[in-house]
Specification:
heterodimer, A: 495 residues, Amidase signature (AS) enzymes, 11 strands, 39% helix, B: 490 residues, alpha+beta, Arc Repressor Mutant, subunit A, nine-stranded mixed β-sheet, three-stranded antiparallel β-sheet
Chain lengths: 495, 490
Amino acid sequence: MVNDLCELSLVAARDALRCGEIRALDLAESCLERINTVEPEVRALLTVTAERARAEAALAETRLAAGERGALLGIPIVLKDLVATRGVRTTCGSRILENWVPPYDADCVERLQQAGAVLVGKSNLDEFAMGSSNENSAFGPTHNPWDLACVPGGSSGGSAAAVAARECAAALGTDTGGSIRLPASFTGTCGLKPTYGRVSRFGLAAYASSLDQIGPITRSAADAAAVLSVIAGHDPRDSTTSARPVPDYEAALTGDVRGLRIGVPREYFPDELNPAVRQAVENALAILVERGAEPVEVSLPHSRYAVATYYLLAPAEASSNLARYDGVRFGLRVADPHDDLLAMYQRTRDAGFGAEVKRRILLGTWALSSGYYDAYYLKAQRTRRLVRQDFETAFQSCDLLLAPTGATTAFQLGERTADPLAMYLSDVFTIAANLAGIPGLSVPCGFDSKLLPIGLQLLGRWFDEASLLRTADALQRDTDWHLRRPPLLKTAETR
Amino acid sequence: MNDPTHARWGDWEPVIGLEVHAQMRTSSKLFCGCSTTFGAAPNANTCPVCLGLPGVLPVLNGRALEFAILTALATGCTVAELSRFARKNYFYPDLPKGYQISMYDEPLAVGGHIDFNSEGARTQVRLTRIHMEEDAGKSIHDGAERESLVDLNRAGVPLMEIVSEPDLRTPAEAADYLRTLRMILQYLEVCDGNMDEGSLRCDANVSVRKRGSDTLGTRTETKNMNSFRSVERAIEVEIERQIEVLEGGGTIRQETRLWDADREQTAPMRSKEDAHDYRYFPEPDLAPVRVTPARIAAIGAGLPELPEARRTRFETAHGLSTYDAEVLTTRRDLADYFEAACAAGGAPKTLANWILTEVWRIVRERRLDDALRIEIWPISAAALAALVSLIEDRTISGKIAKTVFEEMLTTGEAPAAIVEQRGLRQVSDEGALTAAIDAVLAAHPDKVAEFRAGKEKLLGFFVGGVMKTTGGKGNPALVNQILARRLAGG
């Protein structure tokens, strides 16, 4: 082993880089070494950008030596492979984009580069972010570093697994119905889905445009605050981004939760909830109460319709968003010399898309079809408004909400693939936040009997990521769940 | 309805509505910064946004929104405070995203009207709606190679769709409505109105019904007309086709038909059954378009005087004939030029004559009319006014003025300077003219005798002779006057 610098949290590494204690090149090498060690088993990354990482680390060293204090100077990061990177292939986990190299960077990539981050790789995902387990990747699933037989959650499972296995200091994921938070929960990492409109979607291949949001997956709330400060903000290229000023999220981490009213939505603690999950979440709540927070019972009655609503709206948008993958201008084209246009479309899309993507395109096409539009799409839009109103009402009596991220811990690979509905229900607690557009943060809050991580979810008011981060950070000052390392790493070290 | 209509279609009454697509004259596309210049190399005016690459997003062109609002206000439409873009989904190679960003059930503006003269009568057509949308690209099918080429320069170019109610009753009326609409768009400078290049396109919804009926017949939609003449002819042919079908006991199928200008017939393109289900839904990548009353008022303050009002003013304020006023106001550039020349001190009627003949001929010859910019015209309004003033104060004759005009075109010199340099000043010296006249009369004693015997037509012969000897510079009025006196023996 070269060194164990990859074990440093983002904030710790940044401090060490700034005072010259460590070198950015060594930190990058450490991550690349870790990638070499664990990737054969974890398979978190679709592309490792070793050469680029070394070049960017060298550049970061020059900038550091010149006295620059870029927020992420020299910090090794991984990007979900749904985010466009100029010159680096961006597959979206799909055969249809297997060899596509974008001619532009996503807005968040530009911001990360400006802040001095070092790209070490692009992470695996469910194809076009459609899935909750990473098993829908066209390039094979990622394995959970806590138990290689288990899924890392999805769709940002590669990003979460890479952070858990210390292949990078931080990663970006995307969350349309829970795709950052569920993998964070399954891998013992922190995952933040920002408010819709807080982070630019420019350069993010769209799954469901009105729900997609990019966010960080890190090892601590403080690390997440550092990343969010960099990627948040208005982008003239994305009309849905907000012009609100971006607060200093790291300055919000005061440890003080006195008087904070924490809403506990009763619908998120059903009788059939996994007892280990319930206990861990309640235990975390108790710690926050001990620190001075006040628990408040609230109700979100329309949350029970969230999954059904989501599975009409998201596929509807997806059916349109994915129409551009037609074999005409870029990406895969499969055609016989005798094919007419229709046959070329059919062959290309049949070979290029996986089963789940096809299922959602069909579902969405159906929901938008004339004669069905009112009953499905329009009704789902109305339900979406009710879900949003639930949160507006709840936030009148509390400052944020606390709930489990997933109803279970990580499940076994293959356990839910045969039953799409069971898979869809993995996101039962996370989807409502996307429908409402509010921010959500998942942080580790314990382990079950199989030593798999349990995640706790904090949901906040629109654009109040600061409260979520402060609360999670306060919890992490008193607990060490987020510091625990997957057993895989110990095996890897002794090897 | 007037009588010719009755005579033409018996007891059938045509019902016509037009859907007009006008390309807005913005320098960049509707949702990205690419140029809208016509005639660039294939796919030169494209970027990741209009190519529909993964992850890119549309951003609305504010200028296009202003243009559309201006058009709505000029046609009496009500601009919605909140309108919304929607996606129209269908697959075609020249539609890069697999959907067109258009507007559907929440359009930008509704409920206006356009008033115009047609076939001697005052007519009004109500407008259903005006909305914005992006254009698609162009497919070029190469039969020999079994390949199709796609040019996406036009993809994303901003269009306004202007939909009329089925208020039109004859093909000529439809063409006149379209002419009026084009004139308004050109006045507003929101569209160049060029039908050849496709910056103004028109689809016609046509049906026929028994006269006196108030229910509508089944309509067809005819496309692919790229001139006013085509629009008129296609509608005429389609009306006749429908009447023939119905009179033969058949029924009209609701379908889209394509006009073939060479064969002068319409042919079915697709029927209602195989029409697309466009699966419209609100465009999630764009915020709803919110226009405050204050913004609408501010845009409305920039409305230019429209052709109708301007024509009336030209008649009353400048004393022009109805014909001259109407022709001058068909185009804003022409009317602007006229007014600029009047302001520079030219006599309005003479200016109107010169503009409608000489100036316009040159502008057309040099293909400067499409730019809608009088600054690039070869003779400035002030220079024309100066030339006309020289005629008015009798420094030169109208005939000599044409020579001066040609000289102005080639040298760009001021008319007064040209007159001086080339010695074109009119000869109004009675003595000199009398001498010239006497010389002509002396050279043709036989003709003088004939004239005096009553053959008065010979006056022109003498005038011509005098003009010849004065090099065309003789003051025509004075020449006539002296000549009359001398011939009378004075």
